[in-house]
């Protein structure tokens, strides 16, 4: 309010008194003081302007989520308009909570890996109804919340074999890249399996060129590279015919009612879905843990203060599942905010406000073609494959199960099944090699469920 008053005074410099100027200045100082007190800007070595620019950077780095994620869920048959609205609302609310409660510079949005599991593996591949899938997301969030409240995250970390934990990100990345190549028309599926797509098609050429440009922009650390590529390809697609213009760019957002609160909590607890529950949990758990710890270390926040960010993350997963926005997680793009100087929750508040503003631009989000989002999926997926280089390839009982996760994910087009195959093969290979002591209690407990999963899948 005070900034607006000052701006008006600047527009009419000869029409205000010194008393008005002093009053406006005092209000601005009080507002700045409140921000300093609430977010402790001074001790964190930050300023209000720096937090704003960091919030803008974090928004630009993660804005692609409100375009890519609805497109992926629309592929599974969900209405794109309501999905877009639900996702924007959840991003704004979760990021706002991160700023106000945890007072940390993080942005939360649906994770690509979790959404890929929802849309392509469960809904398209397994034909599982949307409410049941949301029930799985809900229970994975509850598990994350319980672990966070009781401070036993390290327990689950130790239960999962290190090699499998390291390769999960790579498996998810492989699956995301697979989706990107397919949505860009770079390959097609037929009776002979995967074959080369029509690379002469304008949409396929645009996706390839967009991918090359995106990698170049990312290599040069250009802010908002994802958004730049998406917007450029969308505009190019208008004369080329693969972008359909909406009636209006500005419009009231569609109601999320068609997808909100459609959750089957009991149906999601079927033993057959255990590997998928684990896949959701693993993707959310390790993604959030890695991002929060990495960014927190950069801005000088000790591990002892990380419980609040994890609480916000886990509550966002639960809330997102109820509202139709699956697999909410702390985005790696949060690093864009810290790199721009963001040190407090004020950065998150600015990011949340910018996302909320996007509710007025939902028609633009729904017009984005698959060719414009394909380069993003290809880049994010291929970038995630680097995790495999950390596997100990000298120990076959470690490297082969890890490789099974990747190979089975690719061959079956399902990283939930890939993870299950890697976990089961880990136990079987260790037992065959007489390395019983290297299989922990948690894996022994999980093995019968994994066997049941593959027996049921065989029928």
Automatic annotation (TrEMBL):
<feature type="transmembrane region" description="Helical">
    <location>
        <begin position="164"/>
        <end position="187"/>
    </location>
</feature>
<keyword id="KW-0472">Membrane</keyword>
<dbReference type="Pfam" id="PF00860">
    <property type="entry name" value="Xan_ur_permease"/>
</dbReference>
<feature type="transmembrane region" description="Helical">
    <location>
        <begin position="403"/>
        <end position="429"/>
    </location>
</feature>
<feature type="transmembrane region" description="Helical">
    <location>
        <begin position="349"/>
        <end position="382"/>
    </location>
</feature>
<feature type="transmembrane region" description="Helical">
    <location>
        <begin position="199"/>
        <end position="217"/>
    </location>
</feature>
<keyword id="KW-0812">Transmembrane</keyword>
<feature type="transmembrane region" description="Helical">
    <location>
        <begin position="52"/>
        <end position="71"/>
    </location>
</feature>
<feature type="transmembrane region" description="Helical">
    <location>
        <begin position="441"/>
        <end position="458"/>
    </location>
</feature>
<keyword id="KW-0813">Transport</keyword>
<dbReference type="InterPro" id="IPR006043">
    <property type="entry name" value="NCS2"/>
</dbReference>
<protein>
    <submittedName>
        <fullName>NCS2 family permease</fullName>
    </submittedName>
</protein>
<keyword id="KW-1133">Transmembrane helix</keyword>
<feature type="transmembrane region" description="Helical">
    <location>
        <begin position="83"/>
        <end position="101"/>
    </location>
</feature>
<feature type="transmembrane region" description="Helical">
    <location>
        <begin position="130"/>
        <end position="152"/>
    </location>
</feature>
<comment type="similarity">
    <text>Belongs to the nucleobase:cation symporter-2 (NCS2) (TC 2.A.40) family. Azg-like subfamily.</text>
</comment>
<feature type="transmembrane region" description="Helical">
    <location>
        <begin position="224"/>
        <end position="242"/>
    </location>
</feature>
<feature type="transmembrane region" description="Helical">
    <location>
        <begin position="273"/>
        <end position="295"/>
    </location>
</feature>
<dbReference type="InterPro" id="IPR045018">
    <property type="entry name" value="Azg-like"/>
</dbReference>
<feature type="transmembrane region" description="Helical">
    <location>
        <begin position="106"/>
        <end position="124"/>
    </location>
</feature>
């Amino acid at each position: 309010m005070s900034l607006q008053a000052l701006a008006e005074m600047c527009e009419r410099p000869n029409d205000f008194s010194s008393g008005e100027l002093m009053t406006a200045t005092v209000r601005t100082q009080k507002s700045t003081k409140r921000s300093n007190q609430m977010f402790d800007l001074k001790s964190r070595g930050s300023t209000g302007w720096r937090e704003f620019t960091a919030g803008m950077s974090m928004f630009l780095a993660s804005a692609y989520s409100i375009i890519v994620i609805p497109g992926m869920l629309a592929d599974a048959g969900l209405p794109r308009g309501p999905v877009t609205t639900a996702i924007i609302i959840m991003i704004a609310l979760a990021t706002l909570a991160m700023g106000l409660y945890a007072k940390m510079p993080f942005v939360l949005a649906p994770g690509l890996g979790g959404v890929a599991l929802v849309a392509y593996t469960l809904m398209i591949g397994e034909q599982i109804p949307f409410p049941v899938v949301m029930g799985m997301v809900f229970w994975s969030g509850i598990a994350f919340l319980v672990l966070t409240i009781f401070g036993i995250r390290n327990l689950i970390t130790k239960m999962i074999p290190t090699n499998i934990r390291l390769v999960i990100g790579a498996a998810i990345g492989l699956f995301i890249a697979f989706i990107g190549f397919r949505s860009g028309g770079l390959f097609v599926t037929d009776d002979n399996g995967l074959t080369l797509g029509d690379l002469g098609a304008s949409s396929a050429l645009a996706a390839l060129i967009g991918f090359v440009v995106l990698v170049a922009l990312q290599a040069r650390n250009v802010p908002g590279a994802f958004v730049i590529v998406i917007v450029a390809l969308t505009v190019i697609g208008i004369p080329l015919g693969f972008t359909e213009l909406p009636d209006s760019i500005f419009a009231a957002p569609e109601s999320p009612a068609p997808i909100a609160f459609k959750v089957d909590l009991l149906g999601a607890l079927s033993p057959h879905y255990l590997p998928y529950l684990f896949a959701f949990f693993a993707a959310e758990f390790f993604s959030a843990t890695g991002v929060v710890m990495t960014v927190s270390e950069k801005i000088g926040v000790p591990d002892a203060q990380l419980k609040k960010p994890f609480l916000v993350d886990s509550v966002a997963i639960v809330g997102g599942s109820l509202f139709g926005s699956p697999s909410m997680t702390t985005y790696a793009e949060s690093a864009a905010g810290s790199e721009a100087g963001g040190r407090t929750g004020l950065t998150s508040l600015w990011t949340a406000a910018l996302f909320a503003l996007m509710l007025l631009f939902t028609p633009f989000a729904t017009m984005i073609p698959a060719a414009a989002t394909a380069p993003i999926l290809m880049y994010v997926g291929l970038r995630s494959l680097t995790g495999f280089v950390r596997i100990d390839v000298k120990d076959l009982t470690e490297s082969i199960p890890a490789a099974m996760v990747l190979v089975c994910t690719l061959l079956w087009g399902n990283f939930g099944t890939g993870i299950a195959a890697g976990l089961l093969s880990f136990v079987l290979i260790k037992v065959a090699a007489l390395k019983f002591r290297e299989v922990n209690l948690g894996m022994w407990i999980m093995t019968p469920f994994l066997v049941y999963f593959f027996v049921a899948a065989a029928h």
